[in-house]
């Protein structure tokens, strides 16, 4: 696995988020390295989705800073934030009357003040097709959204997140409800470009295989952060996830695996 980049794509300082009167995130400090995948892992309710939501404007009551360079994401206009951060949400309401290509185009128009003029439609479609191709979804372009399988839908949503060519790609549990083969497909596609990717993952095994950086959340706080081979340990599995866990070396041409089993 390659080393952590010295360049930081996102800097999080003192981030606190409240839902109602209850704080969900408590003074989060973290650095997201540029390039590759940073995995957010933690038990249910640890704050993974809330942290990702704070990057995209979904969390309303926030204090602290989330910086891309010198620009605070928390102070960006929604259109600017949509241009710089692409999002694949955990759950998405998909208009059944749209084709896959039309759905992807929504990710493009969200970054502009108005739709492009009619004479720019050809360029718009080329941009949409390029995003569909990158997500392995170009053959699905004219399919109606309601006819797509779970794996096909995730690829189309990934294309929508990629279409404006954002600096950072945010994926909230992108492998949720997918079979094993499609889990690998989505992560392979998401990490195949030059984007910085931040993804909430339930699987410690996928985090070990795909991430170059891991942030472990517990009770709304950072419990550990660093390279996955250093952070994901038997002790962490027991203390944070309440399972037995261990790293198993893969074949010389394959990645290592993190295996878990119930505590005995």
Main attributes of the structure:
264 residues, alpha/beta, 6-stranded mixed β-sheet, 9 helices, 12 strands, globular
Specify Rg, calculated over alpha carbons.
19 Å
Unreliable segments (pLDDT under 50, ≥5 consecutive)? 115-119
Strand-pairing-aware structural class: alpha/beta
CATH class: Alpha Beta
Strand order of the largest sheet: 6-7-8-3-9-10
Strand content: 25-35%
Provide the succession of SSEs.
EEEHEEHEHHHEHEHEEHHEE
Shape: globular
Number of strands: 12
Give the termini separation. 32 Å
Q: How many domains, as an integer?
A: 1
User: CATH superfamily name?
Assistant: P-loop containing nucleotide triphosphate hydrolases
Helix run count: 9
- CATH fold title: Rossmann fold
Written description of the protein model:
- The chain is built from 9 helices and 12 strands.
- The protein has 264 residues and is of the alpha/beta class.
- The longest helix is centred in the middle third of the chain and has 14 residues, at 121-134.
- It is globular and about 55 Å long.
- The model is unreliable at 115-119 (pLDDT under 50).
């Amino acid at each position: 696995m390659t080393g952590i980049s010295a360049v930081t794509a996102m800097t999080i300082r003192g981030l606190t988020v409240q839902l109602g009167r209850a704080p969900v995130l408590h003074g989060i400090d973290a650095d997201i390295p540029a390039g590759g995948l940073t995995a957010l892992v933690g038990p249910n309710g640890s704050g993974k989705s809330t942290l990702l939501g704070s990057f995209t404007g979904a969390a309303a009551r926030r204090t602290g800073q989330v910086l891309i360079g010198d620009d605070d994401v928390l102070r960006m206009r929604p259109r600017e934030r949509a241009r710089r951060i692409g999002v694949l949400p955990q759950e998405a309401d998909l208009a059944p009357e749209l084709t896959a290509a039309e759905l992807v185009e929504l990710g493009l128009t969200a970054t502009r003040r108005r739709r492009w003029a009619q004479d720019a439609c050809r360029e718009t479609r080329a941009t949409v097709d390029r995003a569909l191709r990158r997500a392995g979804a170009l053959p699905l372009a004219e399919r109606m959204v309601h006819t797509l399988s779970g794996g096909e839908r995730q690829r189309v949503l990934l294309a929508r997140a990629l279409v404006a060519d954002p600096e950072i790609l945010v994926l909230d549990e992108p492998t949720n409800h997918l079979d094993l083969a499609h889990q690998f497909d989505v992560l392979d596609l998401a990490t195949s470009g030059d984007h910085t990717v931040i993804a909430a993952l339930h699987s410690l095994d996928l985090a070990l295989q795909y991430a170059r950086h891991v942030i472990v959340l517990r009770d709304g706080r950072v419990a550990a952060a660093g390279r996955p081979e250093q952070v994901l340990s038997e002790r962490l599995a027991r203390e944070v996830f309440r399972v037995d866990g261990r790293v198993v070396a893969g074949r010389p041409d394959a990645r290592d695996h993190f295996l878990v089993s119930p505590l005995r």
